């Protein structure tokens, strides 16, 4: 339960400190006095988003701090899951800086908004007038049944499986899309791949073939040049070899006169040996040269094939063609691999569907089992609230799709009077009837949940007189199990509270501020009398107020 609230620099509130007790607390005040501001500040603590418009003074930070006593609500595991220190007296603080930056703390540990929101779901239920419209919402109707049926564990397991199922489905669709894309190109890719394989390409092929082609295509010219070289080297009278030998012999005559001549002679001998080797190599080249038109044509064909493939694939090297060949091979392999992956995923999805259907059936059966219980409780409570002939028809049917909370459709139909047909709540229930139905639902849910606090924001809209009195009794009854706040304009409800707070505006200097104070018994009589008769309080209004409080 919430034990205290500190608000500083929020909207019309400059600074507010207020303590709360358990039981049934009433909050009253004139329209526009600041009750919505109070809820807005509390919303910040519970993870609502905020902006600079929340600041009363834009040069100072806004602080909202709430103390909660949560020792008996089994929240330790939730704190551990969020890596937070659990304290039976927990403090949640929210700060909005002038820069617009927002900070949040739980027991002085920084937290993000999602952690605050997760925590708030287990701390406070703030029922606004807008929430009454949720009665017509399928999710809210399922939540009623699931709370009574105790389906939380089943729903958690189902949702975990559903997330895995959706992930697998998304992956399967992606694989199938890729498969069909590859399949469309399968025949063409196989043709291109086979064409490249048949070309038997190797790195460096193009350069080698082009050189070989040039050599074969100019064999006569090469042969002629080689023969000239051999004549120059081997001619009997003026050949280079004969001249080098004579050059060496003459130089050798001087070797006895100087060691330097001997060294020079040795170097000439080395030249002679090297040159002789070159000549022999030229002789071998000359002997091996053949005019081979067939070989020339084969090389030309291979070159033309490479040129055609380069043009077709828009590349300039054989290495790039080889890379394309490998890519095509991978695509062909991928198609086979995708088929296996798709088959495996489909098998996993079928298994998950079986498990989901099993969980969904259990959830659905437990919902059906509690429909009579809910029906009976609603009729009993609403009978006390002036709706003696109310009837409900709640039907659960199978859905073709998986929802986050099962595989059911729901029909939550209502009839307020004898002889009238059933219709949806949104169409046939009046505002006052919706308020009473919502209160009945909250009362029933409070018997099954371990929620510390509930705040009713004008749930009495559209009712008055004895019905308002009965609504107050129901909320007071709820306060025996949880802390209950009621923001109300009805004196019959206000008189039921164990404690009473008033929201009011005051002018300090040139500034209007909202304030909240706890009323003592005398102040409470006056407040309820004003609710009965307005600012001009009559004696009868005071007596009526005392009677209501007694």
UniProtKB/TrEMBL annotation:
Gene3D superfamilies linked: P-loop containing nucleotide triphosphate hydrolases (3.40.50.300)
Tell me the ranges covered by the RecF/RecN/SMC N-terminal domain, including all copies.
Answer: 1-505
Q: Keyword Isomerase on this protein?
A: no
Q: Which InterPro entries match?
A: DNA_recomb/repair_RecN, P-loop_NTPase, RecF/RecN/SMC_N
Q: What SUPFAM superfamilies is this protein classified in?
A: P-loop containing nucleoside triphosphate hydrolases
Q: Which UniProt keywords apply?
A: ATP-binding, Coiled coil, DNA damage, DNA repair, Nucleotide-binding
Q: Which domain of life is it from?
A: Bacteria
Which residues lie in coiled coils? Answer: 321-369
Family annotation (CDD domains):
ABC_RecN
Q: Does the keyword Acetylation belong to this entry?
A: no
Q: Which family does it belong to?
A: Belongs to the RecN family.
Q: Which PANTHER family match?
A: DNA REPAIR PROTEIN RECN
Job description of the protein: May be involved in recombinational repair of damaged DNA.
Q: What is this protein called?
A: DNA repair protein RecN
- As recorded in Swiss-Prot or TrEMBL, the protein's gene is named recN
């Amino acid at each position: 339960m919430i034990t205290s609230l500190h608000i500083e620099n929020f909207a019309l509130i400059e600074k507010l400190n207020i303590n709360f007790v358990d039981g049934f607390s009433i909050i009253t005040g004139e329209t526009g006095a600041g009750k919505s501001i109070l809820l807005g500040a509390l919303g910040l603590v519970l993870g609502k988003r905020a902006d600079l418009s929340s600041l009363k003074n834009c040069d100072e930070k806004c602080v909202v701090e709430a103390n909660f006593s949560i020792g008996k609500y089994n929240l330790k595991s939730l704190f551990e899951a969020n890596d937070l220190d659990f304290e039976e007296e927990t403090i949640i603080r929210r700060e909005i800086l002038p820069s617009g930056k927002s900070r949040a703390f739980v027991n002085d540990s920084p937290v993000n908004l999602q952690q605050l929101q997760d925590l708030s779901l287990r701390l406070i239920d703030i029922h606004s007038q807008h929430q009454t419209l949720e009665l017509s919402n399928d999710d809210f109707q399922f939540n009623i049944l699931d709370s009574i049926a105790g389906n939380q564990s089943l729903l958690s397991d189902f949702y975990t499986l559903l997330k895995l199922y959706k992930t697998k489905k998304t992956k399967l669709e992606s694989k199938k899309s890729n498969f069909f894309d590859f399949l469309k190109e399968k025949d063409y890719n196989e043709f291109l791949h086979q064409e490249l394989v048949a070309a038997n390409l190797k790195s460096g092929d193009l350069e080698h073939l082009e050189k070989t082609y040039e050599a074969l295509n100019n064999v006569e010219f090469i042969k002629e040049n080689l023969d000239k070289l051999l004549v120059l080297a081997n001619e009997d009278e003026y050949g280079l070899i004969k001249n080098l030998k004579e050059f060496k012999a003459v130089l050798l005559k001087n070797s006895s006169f100087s060691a330097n001549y001997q060294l020079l002679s040795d170097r000439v001998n080395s030249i002679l040996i090297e040159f002789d080797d070159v000549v022999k190599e030229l002789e071998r080249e000359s002997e091996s040269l053949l005019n081979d038109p067939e070989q020339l044509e084969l090389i030309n064909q291979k070159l033309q094939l490479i040129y055609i493939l380069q043009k077709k694939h828009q590349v300039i090297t054989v290495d790039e063609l080889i890379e394309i060949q490998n890519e095509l091979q991978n695509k062909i392999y991928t198609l086979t691999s995708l088929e296996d992956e798709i088959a495996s995923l489909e098998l996993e999805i079928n298994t998950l569907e079986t498990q989901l259907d099993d969980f969904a059936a259990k959830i659905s059966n437990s919902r059906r089992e509690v429909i009579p219980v809910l029906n009976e409780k609603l009729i009993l409570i609403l009978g006390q609230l002036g709706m003696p002939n109310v009837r409900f028809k709640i039907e659960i049917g199978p859905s073709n799709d998986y929802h986050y909370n099962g595989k059911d459709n729901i029909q939550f139909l209502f009839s307020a009077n004898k002889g009238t047909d059933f219709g949806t709540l949104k169409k046939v229930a009046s505002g006052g009837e919706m308020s009473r139905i919502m209160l009945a639902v909250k009362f029933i849910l409070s018997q099954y949940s371990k929620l510390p606090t509930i705040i009713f924001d004008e749930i009495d809209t559209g009712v008055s007189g004895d019905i308002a009195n009965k609504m107050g009794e129901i909320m007071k009854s709820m306060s025996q199990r949880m802390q209950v706040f009621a923001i109300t304009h009805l004196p019959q409800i206000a008189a039921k509270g164990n404690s009473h707070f008033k929201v009011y505006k005051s002018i300090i200097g040139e500034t209007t501020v909202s304030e909240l104070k706890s009323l003592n018994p005398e102040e409470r009589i006056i407040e309820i009398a004003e609710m009965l008769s307005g600012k001009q309080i009559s004696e009868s209004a005071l007596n009526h107020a005392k009677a209501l409080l007694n």
